[in-house]
Protein: SAF domain-containing protein
Amino acid sequence: MNNLIVLNKNDNVGVTQFIIPEKTKIEGKDIVTKDPIPFGHKVCLKNINKGDPVIKYDQIIGFASKNINTGEHVHSHNLEFKEFDRNYKVSEKKLILDEKNDTFFNGILRDNGQVATRNYIGIVSTVNCSATVTKMIVEKIKYSNILNDYPNIDGIVPITHSTGCGMNTESEGMQIFQRTIDGFKNHPNFSHVFVIGLGCECAQISLFDESLKKHNRIHFLTIQDEGGTKKIVDKVLSQIKNLLSEANNVERAPQSVNNLILALQCGGSDGYSGISANPALGVAADML
Structure:
């Protein structure tokens, strides 16, 4: 079989579900391949002039960097990207369920009004240099099995990364980084959060101590101020043990689904994402 996936009459490329050899007649099309077409790749359905848009699933995915003839393989060697006007329409929601309907989930209402779906303790590093300490704290808690005595605590989670050190403190990158750390430290799924820095990095702990705080269950420490790795690990372990009873003191109760925030993450697109995962996630989001 060598048929193509073509979803719209405007498409000038089709996606193959199989490896198609050169000089192969495409089923249902007056097209003979001029190149070998790899699995999941695109075949030109009609001549595309240089500069014309390449359309797949009725979407512009790029522009021809040279003339592309019918039956040719369409890929990075003859496709380029550039800006173009995008016409879109925001659809109005027609079916909005109010809180009187049976649209609830068993969530945890935090003391600041946020609603959680989980009840974790978070250990967040502000710099790559504190990542090892962050992981050590988490591993010591996990292997101690102390959380077995606190059934309402879902676990302890390390948040580490590879940046935060030699950064321009005025840059857009630092702003994005700070918003990301702020998002973790304020996340409702964390009952308590420990934000740990080294002490000499550009992303100083004070950036996060002085920025947006949505609750008072956040603790800030630096390795250098505490006297090194062993001392900060021991201190944080002691603090965690002292707050376990408080973290465990939560109850799940019906919470409106409008408190949920749905996050979608690309796991690595392929030639079929546009007709499989993407619309499936869209439908799931609409249902929610």
Residues 229-248 form the longest helix (20 residues). The helical segments are 131-144, 172-185, 205-209, 223-226, 229-248, 277-287. The domain at 120-249 is CATH 3.40.1400 (Ribose 5-phosphate Isomerase B; Chain: A,).
